[in-house]
Write a structure and sequence with these properties.
Elements: E1 16-18, E2 21-25, E3 29-30, E4 33-34, E5 42-46, E6 51-57, E7 63-71, E8 79-85, E9 91-94, E10 105-112, E11 117-123, E12 136-145, E13 175-178, E14 192-194, E15 199-204, E16 215-218, E17 226-232, E18 238-247, E19 260-265, E20 270-275, E21 282-291, E22 296-303, E23 307-308, E24 316-317, E25 320-329
Antiparallel strand pairs: 1-6, 2-5, 3-4, 5-12, 6-11, 7-10, 7-12, 8-9, 8-11, 13-15, 14-17, 15-16, 16-25, 17-22, 18-21, 18-25, 19-20, 19-22, 23-24
């Protein structure tokens, strides 16, 4: 170590570092700015083209979710590349938008292991004007995820969101799930997040109001992020999509007193669910009946407006969705009268 600069690639226990990496303390200042340490007393800051990596022992073919906390420092448009080697191409995680008043957020990412030993790599690809600038990384955790199956009672997989990324017990802010293209491996099993640079938030009942069970999803990015799932359906069958819409009990009330609106769409029909939030928790149930026209039906859920908390902090929030189900019943063949 040279001050806060990590000079040895194995100076941080269990991690290998490359490039300009700093070991920062909570309360440490850079000029007039305090550096945010998400959890505990220390974190790593990844400077110009820096990365950290750790070797993981995993089971080939098994899917894993990685959770980590990150905060930007100098630049507004900071990004991180996350990958495993061997594995696919890195995925870009944007940390441009802050979704908490603390200055940092927790993010998640997922992969399917192709070997028994892989290296998890977090890389700051941005070439900073100041080599010491760059995002801070903290509280990295990994969790095994199990792909859920559809049932006769619910064609949607993981419609109750009880499977998802790791949330630390003491975490009060939930975990952000970024959009990701080109893969079926998701930290929110069964679901994809469609977005270029925005997220949805995975929340738990320990710190938020959840309509049912222990987990739900808060739509914090308006129409810029949607939950998607494609299911097998029989053309001509009668289908009912149901979901709960509410608020997380986190003071999310529109300043102009306009209600929250969630757009629930299928390949064949759509509906808008209106919810009048008081910011103290609660939910309502809504349903959409349609006739499947194809062998695969796409279900999409998104918020149609932006919301911020009523404390005037500017913190983004949004409606909560949970307990989503899709049930389809095939129509019996027409009976012919014999003469």
């Amino acid at each position: 170590m040279n001050g806060s600069t990590v000079t040895g690639e194995y100076a941080i226990p269990a991690w290998k570092t490359s490039g300009h990496v700093e070991y920062i303390e909570s309360g440490q200042k850079q000029g007039d700015m305090f550096l945010a340490v998400p959890e505990g007393a220390h974190a790593l800051r990844l400077g110009d083209n820096a990365d950290i990596q750790q070797q993981l022992y995993v089971t080939p073919g098994t899917q894993y979710s990685v959770t980590f906390s990150a905060a930007r420092t100098c630049a507004q448009n900071e990004k991180l590349n996350v990958s495993v080697v061997p594995g696919g191409a890195p995925d870009e995680v944007s940390i441009q938008t802050v979704y908490t008043s603390s200055g940092w957020d927790s993010y998640c990412w997922a992969f399917q292991a192709t070997a028994g030993v892989v290296s998890l790599i977090v890389h700051n690809t941005i070439h900073e004007d100041d080599p010491a600038c760059g995002p801070t990384i903290d509280a990295v955790a990994i969790k095994t995820i199990y792909p859920p199956q559809a049932t006769a009672d619910n064609l949607l997989r993981n419609g109750d969101f009880e499977q998802g990324p790791y949330i630390a017990p003491e975490s009060q802010y939930g975990v952000l799930v970024p959009g990701r293209d080109g893969t079926d491996v998701s930290p929110l099993p069964g679901w994809k997040v469609r977005s270029y640079s925005k997220v949805v938030k995975y929340i738990n009942s320990a710190h938020f109001a959840v309509p049912r069970g222990s987990y739900a999803v808060e739509l914090v990015a308006g129409g810029e992020a949607a939950l998607l799932q494609e299911v097998d359906t029989v053309p001509g069958s009668s289908c009912t999509l149901e979901l709960s819409v509410g608020d997380a009990g986190n003071g999310c009330v529109a300043q102009d007193q306009q209600p929250m609106r969630v757009q629930a769409s299928t390949t064949d029909r759509s509906m808008t669910v209106v919810y009048n939030s008081t910011g103290t928790g609660g939910s309502r149930r809504a349903s959409l009946v349609f006739t499947a026209s194809r062998s695969q039906t796409l279900v999409a859920i998104c918020s149609s407006a932006y919301h911020t908390k009523s404390d005037y902090s500017g913190t983004r929030c949004g409606p909560v969705v949970d307990d989503i189900s899709l049930v389809c019943v095939s129509q019996p063949p027409a009976r012919r009268l014999l003469r």
